[in-house]
Amino acid sequence: MPGIRKVLVIAVTVSILAVGAVLAVDVGAAIRSEHRLSRSLAESPRVPFDPEVTLAGFPFLTQAGKGDYAGATIAARGVVLPGCEPARGICRGELGAVLGRFQGPTRGDFGASDVLHTSSISAYTRLDAVTLARYLRITDLTVSTPAPDGKVGGGGPQDGVVSRSEGVVFTGTVALPPDDGLDADDPPSASAYTGPKVRVSVAVDLSVTEGSLEIRATDFYTGPERHVDDAVPEDMRAAVLDRFSMVLPRLPMAWGLEAQRAESFGGDVQLVSDSGVVDVRPDRF
User: Omega before 196 cis (within 30°)?
Assistant: First the structure.
């Protein structure tokens, strides 16, 4: 019996080691292919850094052998966006895409000019509060996604709220009377600004107008989530709200998709587009 147990222990150990070795080889091949696809995407002229790439599905080697992949998730950060005044700084955003099942080169040997035949693309262009502040010319802008009506809470993922298109809360400081915010040496939210100013929270609706992000402030926000509510003279309320409203320049999206809808994403704002079957090349991301 002791001999049999020893043989069983050795057999189990060998099996575990073999499975571990196979898993390590599979994971290593996937990482190599993700790196190749990332470098290929970085050949796109608007992608400044190697994007983050995750290839879906397991085992990877089975997919690579057929050139038939379960999908991919791509996030390219630091993409320069048009329309910011130089004095405000460069506007940058994150371009992302989720590919459905797609066909490409075998062995995961992705190249910049390879054609990927994908069943679907879900793309987004995401702007953080710093970038939105530069567009709106409100230097201390913050963005929050409130909980749904009737649910008290801070909103955001911790409350099961990730995004919404109406009633997103923007908070920031504007001068009184409101100006265009173009004077980079005298922004109203700077501590050195000595003129009258108010810091307020407003509710905004997000939409897409001819492919561009439209931000429209609808009213001052008074809760229940965290907010600020400085007194605004009655004759300036409309002008203050107008400082939080804007149609941005048309922003790039992955593979030239056109934005279909706009929504908040936690403390960010994003344009979203979905496509069906399409052929794409990494260097045209």
Answer: no
Amino acid identity of 266?
Answer: G
Contacts of residue 182, defined as CB under 8 A and 6 or more positions apart, other chains included, come to 85, 137
Please report how many Cα atoms fall inside a 13 Å half-sphere around the Cα of residue 211, on the Cβ side.
8
Cα–Cα dist 166/164, whole Å? 6
pTM of the predicted model, to two decimals? 0.86
pLDDT per position in the chain (285 positions), as tens?
A: 566 665 555 555 555 544 454 455 566 778 899 999 999 999 999 999 999 999 998 898 899 899 999 999 999 999 999 998 877 788 999 999 999 999 999 999 999 999 999 999 999 999 999 999 999 999 899 999 887 665 555 544 555 556 899 999 999 999 988 877 777 666 777 777 778 899 999 999 999 999 999 999 999 998 777 788 888 999 999 999 999 999 999 999 999 999 999 999 989 999 999 999 999 999 999
- What is the C-alpha separation between 127 and 88, in angstroms, rounded? 15
**3-class secondary-structure state, position 13:** helix
* E strand intervals along the chain: 52-55, 68-69, 72-80, 92-99, 102-103, 116-118, 121-127, 142-144, 168-175, 197-209, 212-220, 246-247, 261-265, 268-275, 278-280
Structure tokens at 281: 């090349």
Q: Where are the alpha helices (DSSP H) in 42-81?
A: 60-66
Q: How far apart are CA 186 and CA 85, in angstroms?
A: 15
Cβ pair 212, 248 in contact under 8 A: yes
Q: What is the DSSP letter of 148?
A: P
Q: Which two tokens stand for residue 231?
A: 């007194």
